[in-house]
Amino acid sequence: MDKKHWYEHVPKSVERGQGGNVTILWNQQVQTDRTIPNNKPDIIIRDNEKRTCMLIDVAVSGDRNVIKKEAEKILKYKDLKIEIQRVWNAKTEAIPVIIGATGTISKSFRKYVSNIPGNHEVKEVQKTAILGTAHILRKVLTCYNGVNAGTSDIRTMNSYIRIVATQCSLGTWFVSGM
């Protein structure tokens, strides 16, 4: 893949690699024997040879909520993690990839990212988050230029655009870094 245009990469819902031993699921629900409400992490990397599974959930939050969001993501996929370990017989780990809108990371961010196969530079993911935030601000300021809109409308639009844009960018970055 051309490093210069990583942002143009659109991942398939299911990718197979390393002789079919590794499967990468992008935004796919996990079918389980019992009903689990949170069964759709952003990325699932399943290694059949090593019998491991990674549930990766990506989010860009406000800088003050990075640590809180990490804890939420770990708790969110606790039941799915247990169910996958039982059904797929694979050691499963939930990996939150949470970054603040201005590039803020938690102390444990590097540890989480190091568990994901591939070469990932923290500077690059921070740069992606910051550029995504700048893009959103530009759009919001352009949309609301001269319009006296309510503050809640701006927050809702900003939050939605930021989550969609950066989740897609960061998720693509991790999958393409394999």
Instruction: Give the structural class.
Output: alpha+beta
Overall geometry: globular
Largest sheet: 5 strands, mixed
| Proportion in helices | 40-55%
List keywords for this structure.
178 residues; alpha+beta; 5 strands; globular; disordered C terminus
How would you explain this protein's 3D organization?
This protein has one domain. Helices cover 43% and strands 19% of the residues. The chain contains 5 helices and 5 strands. Strands 1-2-3-4-5 form a 5-stranded mixed β-sheet, sandwiched between helices. A hairpin with a 4-residue loop joins strand 3 and strand 4. Helix 4 runs antiparallel to helix 5. The C terminus is likely disordered.
Brief description of this entry?
The protein has helices spanning 66-76, 78-88, 109-114, 122-143, 151-176, and strands spanning 14-17, 22-26, 43-47, 52-61, 91-100.
Q: How are the elements arranged and paired?
A:
Blueprint: E1 14-17, E2 22-26, E3 43-47, E4 52-61, H1 66-76, H2 78-88, E5 91-100, H3 109-114, H4 122-143, H5 151-176
Helix pairs in contact: 4-5
